[in-house]
Design goal:
Blueprint lengths: L1 E6 L4 H11 L5 E7 L4 H11 L3 E4 L2 H11 L5 E4 H9 L5 E4 L7 H9 L3 E4 L3 H17 L3 E3 L2 H9 L8 E8 L9 H5 L3 H4 L9 H9 L1 H13 L7 E5 L5 E7 L4 E5 L5 H9 L13 H4 L13 H10 L5 H18 L5 H16 L9 H22 L4
Parallel strand pairs: 1-2, 1-5, 2-3, 3-4, 5-6, 6-7, 8-9
Antiparallel strand pairs: 8-10, 10-11
Bound molecules: magnesium ion.
Length: 391
């Protein structure tokens, strides 16, 4: 029996994790759950899975959960201390499925407590990849990727030695502007940017897919998850999203992982490792798909992808700076009144200013990461307000 702690249990990945666990009650038990403000959904999960510890965003939510569960409630905590308690609860695997910077501290706490981690929270490796790698090595724990591209690479690497790897190849759908000219992309509206061809996702990640920033963040994630230098992490555009990523070995053999896009598959790979679970999901029919296409990504039309490589070539905190600047610029674009090409323009400007400060000290701890994050947010806001003529 594998005991799971799930950080972000009421989000998309959290819910699908519990669905996979529920389909295999002989294999999985739930030790602890953390959610934000979806208290009704969390109460259902607590009744179904009987965790010993639960955490929510704030005290108000904790009171509501107690009321809903009555005398049958587990230990209910809230805030940062609650997240840390769930991350370090008595479990075999912590599923890190929070979204954004809030997941970094509890994920580090889980690793420091010696827990294996199934990682869906991409910002953990983007913001603090170097630091997380050092902690994982020091504690001897295992990081299992849940992002579909990184799960594909993880599967392609099974049984191979690090020295045999020539390069990692991440696939990208190309987003809604794949065939657009630079001039047309620059003037794209919010509606056009939100119109993703293959996936229905949250607005932030959909805009990141349109700018290819999402793929850039995944390049950073791959560099740290698999300890491969950035010049050996490549991106290929593959509009059908059937090949989830590939690994080329030094003998020129290329291993790919294919499947219909369904997050339950990479979740099950991480939960069951090193075994495989039977899954009741649609199967790939290659003849029905007919053909698979590939293109070289164009970093002239999609400069955000190049910025990720620039950040990896700079200071260890530079990816955290790029991530934070991008969160600010994407939010401003979604608010309206800003052209699409300013996302890349301001991101580049903030990254340049950070690099020009000329520090080369390694990331020592979470405080260093959060300091870089806060600096970048302030700098991006300043650039945006100057742009709008109000500063
Ligand atoms: Mg992905």
């Amino acid at each position: 029996m594998k005991r799971l702690s799930v950080l972000g249990s009421t989000g998309s990945v959290g819910e699908q994790t519990l669905a996979v666990a529920a389909a295999h009650p002989d294999r999985y038990a739930v030790a602890a759950l953390a959610a934000g403000r979806r208290i009704a959904k969390l109460a259902e999960q607590v009744r179904a899975f009987r965790p010993a510890v639960v955490s929510v965003a704030d005290g108000l939510g904790a009171d509501e959960l107690r009321e809903r569960l009555g005398g049958d409630a587990p230990e209910i905590l809230h805030g940062d201390a609650g997240l840390e308690a769930v991350a370090t609860a008595d479990a075999d695997l912590v599923v890190a499925a929070l979204v954004g910077a809030i997941g970094l501290a509890p994920t580090l706490a889980a690793i420091r407590a010696g827990r294996d981690v199934a990682l869906a929270n991409k910002e953990v490796m983007v913001m603090a990849g170097a630091l997380v790698r050092r902690e994982v090595a020091a504690r001897g724990t295992t990081l299992l990727p849940v992002d579909s591209e990184h799960s594909a690479i993880f599967q392609a690497l099974a049984g191979e030695s690090q020295g045999a790897v020539a390069k990692l190849i991440l696939t990208a759908s190309g987003g809604p502007f794949r065939t657009w000219s630079a001039e047309r992309i620059a003037k794209a509206t919010v509606e056009e940017a939100l119109n993703h061809p293959n996936w229905d996702m949250g607005p932030k990640i959909t805009i990141d897919s349109a700018s290819l920033m999402n793929k850039g963040l995944e390049v950073i994630e791959a560099r740290w998850l698999f300890d491969v230098p950035p010049e050996r992490v490549e991106v290929v555009v593959h509009p059908q999203s059937i090949i989830h990523s590939l690994v080329e070995f030094r003998d020129t053999s290329v291993m790919a992982q294919l499947g219909l896009p369904d997050m339950r598959v990479p979740i099950a790979v991480a939960l069951a490792h090193p075994e495989r679970l039977p899954l009741d999901v649609p199967r790939l029919d290659l003849a029905a798909i007919g053909r698979l296409d590939f293109e070289t990504p164009d970093t002239k039309r999609f400069p955000c992808l190049q910025l990720a490589y620039d950040a990896l070539g700079a200071h260890e905190a530079a990816p955290a700076v790029l991530n934070a600047a991008n969160e600010v610029t994407v939010a401003a674009f979604l608010d309206g009144g800003m052209s699409f090409d300013r996302i890349a323009g301001v991101n580049a400007d903030v990254l340049d200013r950070f690099t020009a400060r000329g520090t080369d000290a390694a990331l020592r701890d979470l405080d260093d990461v959060m300091e870089a994050d806060a600096w970048a947010r302030a700098c991006a806001r300043e650039r945006l307000s100057a742009e709008r003529g109000c500063a």
